[in-house]
Amino acid sequence: MKRTIISAVLAIGAFSTAQAASINGLVNTGFGANGTADTHYTLTAASSDTAIANTAPVITFDNQWPINPWMANDSTSKWITPTASQGQSFDAWSAGTYTYSLSFDLSGFKADSASFSARMAADNSVVVLLNNQMISSASGFTGWSAFTSNGGFIDGVNKLDFVVTNWAQNSGNPTGLRVEFTDSTITPVPEPETYAMMLGGLALVGAIARRRKA
Question: Which pLDDT belongs to residue 206?
Answer without folding.
Answer: 55
